[in-house]
């Protein structure tokens, strides 16, 4: 039986708010027994350096009395994960993130520690990798990871930053829903579209939608539908 304690957040920053600010009260509870969090900055949004990204995270967590260490500061990243009290994987480019996790042989180690109860926070790319594969990311494939398989903490895929079609837009390109339907031409696992400010809370075997917004659910060969906050997704697989 898994002993998970996970927050899978669509984004680190909502409109009009600072980095992680909208989540800080929830993170107080999530990391309540932990003083130091191990941060994995591999996704590098906009090509930011590991050091700069880690400093940004340190500033956010200092507001709730937590310190942060970047995994790149350790000689042995596997040991760093094994000994960490809690883990945060930030957003950026999912392909870059997954490539680095495989390069450092960290996939299995992350699965083991998180499935045995170590608190985990993921935002954006760090949330996308909580699903079965990275194939419903919004990112460009600027590097080629050895596998598209990811951590599989939940039995479906995740689409962070889910956007609804805008009926007034003159944009003639594909909508997010169209992209996910294309995915379902080749794969059958469900996809959860997480809107900005929403997150999934995983406690052991229970998966619950949190936040003020509904989420869009896409199942293979079915019409997509909405679920409301505080709904459980345990049967979605």
Summarize the structure in words:
- The chain has 237 residues and is an alpha/beta fold.
- A hairpin with a 6-residue loop joins strand 10 and strand 11 (225-227).
- The two termini are 17 Å apart.
- 24% of the residues lie in helices and 19% in strands.
CATH fold node name: Rossmann fold
- The low-pLDDT segments are none
Helix/strand order, N-terminal first: EHEHEHEHHEHEHEEEEE
- Strand fraction equals 15-25%
Distance separating the two termini: 17 Å
Query: What is the global morphology?
Result: globular
List keywords for this structure.
237 residues, alpha/beta, single chain, Rossmann fold, 7 helices, 24% helix, four-stranded mixed sheet
In short:
Helix content is about 25%, strand content about 20%.
Task: Please describe the topology of this protein.
Layout: E1 5-9, H1 24-30, E2 36-40, H2 50-62, E3 67-70, H3 77-83, E4 87-89, H4 94-103, H5 107-115, E5 120-123, H6 125-128, E6 157-159, H7 176-183, E7 191-193, E8 199-203, E9 206-210, E10 215-218, E11 225-227
Parallel strand pairs: 1-5, 2-3, 2-4, 4-5, 6-7
Antiparallel strand pairs: 1-8, 7-10, 8-9, 10-11
């Amino acid at each position: 039986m898994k002993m998970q304690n996970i927050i899978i957040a669509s984004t680190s920053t909502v409109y009009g708010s600072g980095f992680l600010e909208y989540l800080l009260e929830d993170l107080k509870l999530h990391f309540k027994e932990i003083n130091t969090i191990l941060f994995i900055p591999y996704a590098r949004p906009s090509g930011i350096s590991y050091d700069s990204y880690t400093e940004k995270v340190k500033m956010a967590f200092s507001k709730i009395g937590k310190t942060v260490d970047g995994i790149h500061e350790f000689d042995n990243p596997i040991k760093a994960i094994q000994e960490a009290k809690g883990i945060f994987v930030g957003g950026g480019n999912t392909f870059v993130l997954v490539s680095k996790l495989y390069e450092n042989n960290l996939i299995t180690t992350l699965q083991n520690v998180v499935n045995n109860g170590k608190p985990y926070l993921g935002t954006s790319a760090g949330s996308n990798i909580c699903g079965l594969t990275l194939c419903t990311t919004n990112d460009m494939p600027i590097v080629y990871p050895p596998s598209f398989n990811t951590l599989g903490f939940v039995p479906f895929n995740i689409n962070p930053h889910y956007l609804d079609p805008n009926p007034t837009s003159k944009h003639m390109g594909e909508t997010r829903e169209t992209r996910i339907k294309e995915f379902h031409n080749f794969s059958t696992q469900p996809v959860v579209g997480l809107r900005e400010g929403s997150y999934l809370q995983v406690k052991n075997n229970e998966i619950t939608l949190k936040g003020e917004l509904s989420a869009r659910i896409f199942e293979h060969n079915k019409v997509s539908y909405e679920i409301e906050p505080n709904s459980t997704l345990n049967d979605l697989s």
